[in-house]
From TrEMBL, chain A:
Gene3D superfamilies: MetI-like (1.10.3720.10). Keywords: Amino-acid transport, Cell membrane, Membrane, Transmembrane, Transmembrane helix, Transport. The chain crosses the membrane at residues 20-43, 189-210. The gene is ehuD. Coiled coil: none annotated. It comes from Streptomyces composti. Belongs to the binding-protein-dependent transport system permease family. This is Ectoine/hydroxyectoine ABC transporter permease subunit EhuD.
From TrEMBL, chain B:
Keywords: Amino-acid transport, ATP-binding, Cell membrane, Membrane, Nucleotide-binding, Transport. This is Ectoine/hydroxyectoine ABC transporter ATP-binding protein EhuA. It is a peripheral membrane protein. It comes from Streptomyces composti. Coiled coil: none annotated.
Length: 216, 262
């Protein structure tokens, strides 16, 4: 294999730019996925069928269609209806929305995992329903779901190169651009691959440690 | 202006007048095809300590759960302190329910809150007590149950007996008129039972709170009860003083039951 350290050094500035974009998309996408997922989970539990049914249908739809199709839809189809988003915004929204349908399931399992006795104790103390959620149920449920949410962040990291297809210059996008301009593909692609494992593997170790601490 | 401090008048436990604090009229509860309570009628007077005994599945615990609104009856009327608890609009249910507190077999403390906050949470958010007042009162109650030094512990770091004593303090913090005790020592290791029962004995003898108690601890029941109700198949088949019911029961079924657990 052709390997040239000077080429690698030439790629570095673009690589740092790409890394920043990847982390940006990951961070913002995660925040959307965490918040929106909780919203879906709570809405699905609503006693009002007009709330729970459409939310269930929508999340099933999103979960069962490919992320790439959703990205193309947001980027190429939504402008037809007057909603034009930048490539990075599209990526963040797409990742966040797609993964929110998975985090919703995580939250649901976490909420179901809180023992019935906790609801009963809250009733016996006459705590209002909203207070029961915020002070009793959610703190216990969220503690259980942190490791599972973390796993989805790692999965999202590994899906982030898809944003390249709509023109976001994240790590892989920078690598491809560099390659097509200089005709050196080896060095940038290898570096990007190493960067992914250097982020994902320690993160998964961290999560395992966190899991041991939180889930007892 | 100096406030004149008058001594709190001591209300004698037995004033001669009785006031019904709990009333069940023709209450029926079914789970599927199984009729757990069958057109049950009974009343409890204020300040009385009533123990429900009977074989498992006879409906004792269901009565407590109905009063705590954890389950709803299929038929009948439930009245607490003169106000209807069932059937009633939700707003009324929420108000009437505040008169009742419950201690559970499995303690059900909130594991995400320290002991002190377990006790102050409801007084602050439901009764609108100030945080300082609620904490002062919680410390008193924790002292009463012998756990003044555990305020800052998390429930999971306490023994079962200690958790149950916190649960008792938590229930009392809401100043309920009625305290429901649902097999509160059944989940405890034998050596921890006495500590919990001592606390309850103390409360039974030193307050005028009405107690409704489901237990298999017969010596405890004999000790604190004014009245014992024997349940079988969703009906009260015999009731009377503990001396009468444990000493010389009228009903063959009661005799059989007592012989199996004593």
């Amino acid at each position: 294999m052709n390997w040239n350290w000077t080429t690698l050094k030439d790629f570095l500035p673009s690589f740092w730019d790409g890394l920043l974009v990847t982390l940006q998309a990951l961070l913002l996408g995660s925040l959307i996925a965490f918040a929106l997922g909780l919203f879906w989970a709570l809405a699905q539990r609503s006693r009002l069928k007009v709330v729970s049914w459409p939310v269930t249908a929508f999340t099933e739809f999103i979960r069962n269609t490919p992320l790439l199709v959703q990205l193309f839809f947001i980027f190429y189809v939504l402008p037809e209806w007057g909603l034009t988003l930048s490539a990075l915004t599209t990526g963040v929204v797409g990742l966040g929305l797609h993964y929110s349908t998975y985090t919703a399931e995580v939250y649901r399992a976490g909420i179901d995992g809180v023992p019935a006795g906790q609801w009963e104790a809250a009733t016996a103390l006459s705590l209002p329903r909203s207070r029961t959620w915020t002070a009793v149920i959610l703190p216990q449920a969220l503690r259980r779901v942190v490791p599972a949410l973390g796993n989805y962040v790692i999965a999202m990291l590994k899906d982030s190169p898809m944003l390249m297809t709509i023109g976001v210059l994240e790590m892989l996008g920078e690598a491809r651009q560099f390659g097509s301009q200089t005709f050196h593909m080896n060095e940038p692609i290898v570096l990007v691959g190493i960067a992914f494992i250097l982020i994902a593997y320690p993160a998964s170790l961290l999560l395992r440690a966190l899991e041991r601490r939180l889930v007892r | 202006m100096s406030a004149e401090t008058e001594p709190t008048p001591q209300i004698p436990r037995d004033t001669g007048t009785t006031r019904e604090v709990i009333r069940l009229d023709q209450v029926t509860k079914r789970f599927g095809d199984n009729t757990v309570l069958d057109q049950l009628n009974f009343t409890v007077d204020a300040g009385k300590h009533v123990t429900l005994i009977g074989p498992s599945g006879s409906g004792k615990t269901t009565i407590l759960r109905l009063l705590m609104t954890l389950v709803q009856p299929d038929e009948g009327i439930i009245t607490v302190d003169g106000e209807q608890l069932y059937p009633a609009p939700e707003k009324q249910v929420r108000e009437v329910r505040k008169k009742i507190g419950m201690v559970f077999q499995q303690f059900n403390l909130f594991p995400n809150m320290k002991v002190l906050r377990n006790v102050t949470e409801a007084p602050v958010t439901v009764l609108g007590m100030s945080k300082d007042e609620a904490e002062a009162r919680a410390r008193e109650l924790l002292e009463l149950v012998g756990l003044a030094d555990k305020c800052d512990a998390y429930p999971t770091h306490l023994s079962g007996g200690q958790q149950q004593r916190v649960a008792i303090a938590r229930a009392l913090a809401m100043r309920p008129q009625v305290l429901l005790l649902d097999e509160v020592t059944s989940a405890l290791d034998p050596e921890l039972v006495a500590g919990v029962l001592d606390v309850l004995r103390d409360i039974a003898h030193s307050t005028d709170i009405t107690m409704l108690c489901v237990t298999h601890e017969m010596s405890f029941a004999r000790d604190i009860s004014d009245q014992v109700l024997m349940f079988d198949s969703g009906r009260v088949i015999e009731s009377g003083s503990p001396e009468k019911l444990f000493g010389d029961p009228d009903h063959e079924r009661t005799r059989e039951f007592l012989s199996t657990i004593l």
